[in-house]
Amino acid sequence: MKNIWVAIVDDHLIVVKGISEIVSKVKGMEVVLTAENGVDFLKKLESADKIPDVVLMDIEMPEMSGTEAILKLKFEYPSMRVIVLTMHDEESYITYMLKKGARGYLFKNASPLELEKAIYKVNEGELAYNDKVNKITIEALKRKRVVLPNNNNSRGTITEREKEIIIYICQGKNSVEIANQMNVSKRTIEAHRRTILTKTNSRNIANLIAFAVNNGLYSHQTDL
After folding, report:
1. Is 113 exposed, middle or buried (CB count within 10 Å of its CB: 0-12, 13-18, 19+)?
2. Nearest CA to 42 among 9, 12, 86?
3. CB 98, CB 105: distance < 8 Å
C-alpha cells in the first residue's frame, strides 16, 4: 500500500520541522513537500515528483494566506485534502475554512496522536476536527432552516436540539455517546430519536441521513 504523502505549509520553520518529525515517525506516512506560504506551495507543486494526498496548512502566512491557497487548491488540485493547522479558534475562521473545502481543522497544540488520526481520516475521505470545532460547526448547522416532508403528520418543526441529535447520528454516534455529549440520559436521547424519525418520516437511519443531507445538516463536504 502506498504511503500517505503529506505536505506542510507554514511560515514558521520551527513549526514545519516539528510537524515533519511527528509525521515522519508514523508508519505509512511520508512528508513529501514543505512550503512557507501559499505561493511557495503552489510553485513547488508544479515541479513536484510526488503530489501530496494531505496538506497541513496554516491560515495566516505572508504573500498568500491559507484562506487564499485553499480556494486555488480546490480548483487546481481537487483531489488534494487540506487540514487546517492553526491557533485560530474563532467561529468565523473555522466555518470559513470548512465551507471553502478544508477537510479538517486542528489547533497547533494538538497531540501527535490527534494529528496522526486526522491525517488518516482525511485521507480516507472523512472529516477530521476536535470536539471544540465539532461544537462550533454544529452550532452553525443548527441555525439552518429545515423543511419537513409534505406528508408529515406531526405538529411542530425540528428543534435545535433535534438538529444536534440528527447531526450526531449522521456522524455515527450511538445513543449512549450522544447522551454523554449532550449531558442527558440515554432514555432522553432514544425518545428524541423516535420523535425525529416520526417528524422526518424516516423508517430507518439511512432515511434520516438522506433527510439530513437534503436539508444541509450533514455532508461529507461540510456546508455551513
Report:
1. exposed
2. 9
3. yes
Among residues 75, 98, 73, 77, the alpha carbon closest in space to that of 88 is found at 98
Given a contact cutoff of 8 angstroms between Cβ atoms, the answer to whether 86 and 58 are in contact is yes
Domain end (from 84, 100, 129): 129
Of 129, 160, 190, the residue that ends a domain is 129
CA distance 117 to 122: 9
Could you give the 3-state DSSP secondary structure of residue 4?
strand
The whole model's pTM is what?
A: 0.72
Distance CA 129, CA 124 (A): 14
pLDDT of residue 219: 65
Regions of the chain with pLDDT less than 70: 150-156, 219-224
116 and 201 inside one domain = no
Cell reading at 107: 489547533
Domain count, the chain: 2
For residue 161, what are the contacts with CB-CB under 8 A and spacing of at least 6?
182, 192
Distances (CA, A) of 223 to 21, 41, 99, 144: 33, 26, 5, 10
